[in-house]
Every structure is written in structure tokens, then in C-alpha cells.
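Below: protein 1.
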Amino acid sequence: MTDIEELNAKINTRFSDLIERSVLAYGELTLILHAEHLLEVAKSLRDEPAFDFKLLVDVCGVDYLDYGISEWETETASGTGFERGVIENTGQKHTGKRFASVYHLLSLRLNQRIRLKVFLDEHAPLVPSVVDIWPAANWFEREAFDLFGIIYEGHPDLRRILTDYGFVGHPFRKDFPLIGQVEARYDAKERRVVYEPVSIQARVLEPKVIRTDPRYEVGE
């Protein structure tokens, strides 16, 4: 049994009634749990010697809107080789909750990593803050709030950190327009920055299909 498999067994024994499931794939262990159990599991993973995950590496948000659907809707380009203009549709569209808050933990003493994932409702993406457990979560949670609109309850200073104070919307959400909603420019007459509706015209990207390339032709 490898170290990651042993850790997975310990996790399922210790937290069988607190986690929804554990996923072991690509040499990485992910715990799926509900928001109401996050703080209890997080404290145990930090404090119990068998786990000792005292370092929070990252907190990030994920938007699963349209997850599993092809990026390109086309029948003229293949999905392999130099003509790759489509992402293969697995037919496994995500049907669960839209958002997720993801936590990456590291145990320096045991040299082990683990990922926690909490799925959140689209209309109420609420999850408890882990700032009191790992103070490093402060800016990470602010970033996820800014970009995805995830609310971290109990955060001491939950406000935007990357976008402007008056920014509307959350730019990492899949339904946020790529060209944005407003653009900024400096007005010399008013001597200040002004915000206006975007002047960029929305356009649909077309996949680039390379039919021939002499560099890769095999000589006779």
C-alpha cells in the first residue's frame, strides 16, 4: 500500500460520517464534504498527529457551469493532432451544484498533500471561513469571493482584492462576458478615470484548422 492509499484509508476510517466521499486519482487525494462539516474536518486534519496538515497552500473557487460540454460546436474539424479544434465531449455534463470551494493542504512533517472540495449552491454559495484555522486563507478567500462570488461566512474582512471597488459581477464565472461590462479610461478634462460601456464588439472565435504542414511531411 502506497502512502497516499494509506492516507486515504485513514481518512475514510476517521471521517466516514463527515465526508461525502474520497476520490483517489492521478496520485492525488480529494475529499468531498458538505459545508457544515468543513470546519470540524479542517481542524482535525490540522491538529491530529496522524494528519498534521498545518499548511494551507491555496483556496480557490471553481465554476462548473457547462462543465463537460464541448468548447467548439463544429463538425468540420477533428479533435486530434494538428487539426485539433474541438474538445471531445464526454457526454458527462456536470449536473450537481454549480460552484465549489477548494482547499489544498500540505503536511510538511509527513510530506503529504490533500485536497478538500465543498460544492455550493448557485443562488447561495455560502461556506464557513477557515481563517481561524489557517490565517493564510484570508487573502485566498477574498480572491475567491472577488472572482467567483463565493461568500465565506465569518471572514474578518471579506471585500474585493483584485478588481476595482465599484466592479460589478464576478469575472471568473463562466457566464461573465469575456469582453467585460465596462472599460476605464483617463479623462483629461475631468482629470479622473471614467468608466464607460465596453466599445469592443463581441465575436465568435473559430477553431484554427491546419490542413497541411510541410515540416511534418514524410518523404518518399
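Below: protein 2.
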Amino acid sequence: MQKDILAYHKTLTAADKTICDTLYETICAALPEAEHKIWHRHPVWFLDGNPVAGYSKLKDCIRLLFWSGQSFDEPGLAPEGSFKAAEMRYKNAADINIKDLKRWLKKSKTIQWDYKNIVKRKGVLERLK
């Protein structure tokens, strides 16, 4: 695990750290080609410079975010924000359905909106791939 992400995990409670450790291992295994780093204070995975998945600590849970998740057509993911992102929230590690998570991660490779160039396009998202 990278030092900055390890440092992030060390700030969490034991229960939240277990959730994040599971997410980290599963995301890294599913997206081995992805760059991952702390971005805006949270672990995020990028494909060709485009953010695709990440997680963060909220007040009462860990939020897993897929930047293009609304286009995955997955009933388990809730819309987040005003663009194309979708989320899943976890209160404990037992809530993580690894089969669903792997399916979402597979979709994150092939279904992407171009967040990398959103500023250049003045807030307009274009579909990639």
C-alpha cells in the first residue's frame, strides 16, 4: 500500500479501516493498470488520468464512489452529485458484497465520462470509450 493511502487508513477507526482495507485490496486487484493516490484528501483510482473509483470517510460510514456510476445501470448504486457519479455507503465490512463490487469495477473500466477534461469543457461531460 502506498504511504499516503496507508497514512489515510491509519486515521480511521478499526471498523472503518477494515472496510477501507477491503475496498483497497479489491479495487487494486480489479484495476491493476490504474494509478491510485490521495486526491482531494481521499484514495482515488485513475485510468488514463480520469478518476473512476475512490472512497472516503463520511460522518457515519465509508462512501465508495464511482465517477461514472450512474451510467452503470446498477440498482445498488445511488446517484451522487450533479454529474454522473454514483455511490455505495458501508457501515461495516460485512455490508460489502464483493461480487457486486467486482462487477461495478469491471464496468468502471468500460463506462467512463471524461472528468479529466471537465474544466476545459466548462463543466460539460463527454462519454469516453
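Residues 14-30 form the longest helix (17 residues).
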